[in-house]
């Protein structure tokens, strides 16, 4: 009961996702099949990671305009490094994630010690990231290890089969063999990274800063450290998205338009997931759900015949309707002054 | 309780310009003004005196249209009026210069001065005329150095105050109300304002003057009115009453609230020692010692540096000079983080509960733990079991009335919110506790619990420095009272010397011959 009251927005988003996705499967000619699920799962991973990355600055009460660019940069880095022997591949993946975390750390340091607004600082560093990405990949290309691509973008059965871990047809394995690997990666990393972060002192401090920075400071909380940690974690999550995008497409592409679209969609996903743009309330899991909702909406265009030219218009209207649901609570507020707090 | 509020006896023959009869004002059932009869004549300089909370601010807010009276009648130039806004009051010639500045920081000086009725040309604001107007008005108060094009945010506090005065003059007032208008001014500006008041008086303008500086009142005003507890006590000509009579009028006779018994004064080992503490021009050499187990009260009128002293000790202010010794630890903490940790272990219950004390949307549990996560963590991770135990202990110790510890702290009543703030700091097991008006805006029952808690904490050997705007509270709770005036401690009162008369006299820095 208590959970429900405090996470109304999150539960609402979860319900919306369930309704949308189940309806989608009913309408899809091959609905409720592993093939559809795997394909959909592949398409949501990158935006879901980027949305989780965006959550941290939003919780602090700011916006990060560089998340899409960091994803693009790290995808380009991965397209160069993630190939060769298994050891080289592992090193390449670690290096890709390290680049993202380092970039986020740099964002944090600039914002904390440069005393800049996050939105403007990351506008600049985002352009820097895209510049670096173009430098690494002037033209789309690269070759990411093919086995890795196959193993991580299909079901668990294919993962086991590709690397010959054990007999993929073993009876005990069948109940879970259908699960798409991308979803396991997504939820696994979310659980392993976000949940501990939220329970750490640094994580609580991030929420405290977004709620009332003055009170957080007066409580002697480590404000600067928490800010830098939040941006570092944001960079790391964005690079998870970049790494996956590179593995999924087996290549890197310094696509400026794509980076911008991911950044804007990440903000929409954060709002859909119930995180307040004023900071202090919400969480990355909500943003993950928000990202899934955004993607599922776009899936509909494949099975409903709509003029492709109308697609952005309809997407915009649906998004507007979805975020408006979150504003309904304000209708119940009696003291209008509270709307401004 | 005195309800006399006798009507002013008008010495000169003409009728008063502003006349209040039977004015009362209630806020949520709490009386701010009761049955006030008051008059103000053109060509007089009229001082309003009273303690904090005597009703002075409410009175001028009613006169200037900010608040509407709950009962009673107000007449201006003989006609009954009901102001619904400050602009209606300004149209009737009553203009107020408020203590809290009313300027818009992102607009220019000229924009601000003409904000309510800018000169227009073809329906658009005439920038040049507006600038000329600003120049003329600023010249009248000898502020030619202020550029009308400058933004308010770039001006110093004293310049802003002068712009505020120019803005008020621009409305051509018949009655000009100055609420502590000189408190932020440099001494040169103060002279200018004195001059201005003289000229206004000659022009037949009435000035209503609220000031806590007795020498100022003595120098400028011809009429004085004393308020106490929301009632008008008496109005008299300057020189008709002695300073000690005025002080007695201001405090009255009420004693309220129950306090735990004060222990006999004993010699205590000094735990917190402050030497010559200075900061900007708000702290001017503070010297104070607080012993182990002692509650020291900070008295004085609002804004004499008490809050700054507490903030300086807690490491919030930059550029503080002087020496501080907390137990074995010497030096001024560099941040609240440094102040609460280490050996010094200082806690501050801040002034504004809602912005500095609590993270309102977060849960009660999170707020309780905000200052002491280190105690419930294993490395960087918070231990849920320890967390629960600590929260339960904090809630039990202060008897905070809650539904669930996971509810947002915003759902609690003011008194319980304040208990959360106090409990949060007790969790750090502080040696030194700084309290900034901890009972403001909370109910009497909770107040008494806090008084008792303070005494218990002192008996455990902690050093407590307690600022309150309520003198009764200071007298009831403290072993010793240090009265601040203009950024320094002028008087310390101990034992039998503690009395309301003595505090008020020391607050105003006047010698009644009775104070110690």
Automatic annotation (TrEMBL), chain A:
Transmembrane regions: 9-27, 58-82, 89-113, 119-136, 172-195, 228-247, 259-278, 285-303, 309-331
Keywords from the named record: Cell membrane, Membrane, Transmembrane, Transmembrane helix
InterPro entries linked: ABC_transp_permease (IPR001851)
Protein location: Cell membrane
GO terms under cellular component: plasma membrane
Primary localisation category: membrane
Its membrane topology: Multi-pass membrane protein
Gene Ontology terms, MF aspect: transmembrane transporter activity
Pfam families per the UniProt record, alphabetical: BPD_transp_2 (PF02653)
Protein name: ABC transporter permease
Organism of origin: Pseudohoeflea suaedae
Automatic annotation (TrEMBL), chain B:
PROSITE patterns: ABC_TRANSPORTER_1 (PS00211), ABC_TRANSPORTER_2 (PS50893)
Transmembrane segments: none
Pfam families for this protein: ABC_tran
Keywords for this protein: ATP-binding, Membrane, Nucleotide-binding, Repeat, Sugar transport, Transport
Molecular function in Gene Ontology: ATP binding; ATP hydrolysis activity
Entry superkingdom: Bacteria
Gene3D superfamilies: P-loop containing nucleotide triphosphate hydrolases (3.40.50.300)
Limits of the ABC transporter domain: 18-254, 267-511
InterPro entries linked: AAA+_ATPase (IPR003593), ABC_carbohydrate_import_ATPase (IPR050107), ABC_transporter-like_ATP-bd (IPR003439), ABC_transporter-like_CS (IPR017871), P-loop_NTPase (IPR027417)
Annotated PANTHER family: CARBOHYDRATE TRANSPORT ATP-BINDING PROTEIN MG119-RELATED (PTHR43790), GALACTOFURANOSE TRANSPORTER ATP-BINDING PROTEIN YTFR (PTHR43790:SF9)
Similarity annotation: Belongs to the ABC transporter superfamily.
Protein name according to UniProt: Sugar ABC transporter ATP-binding protein
Organism: Pseudohoeflea suaedae
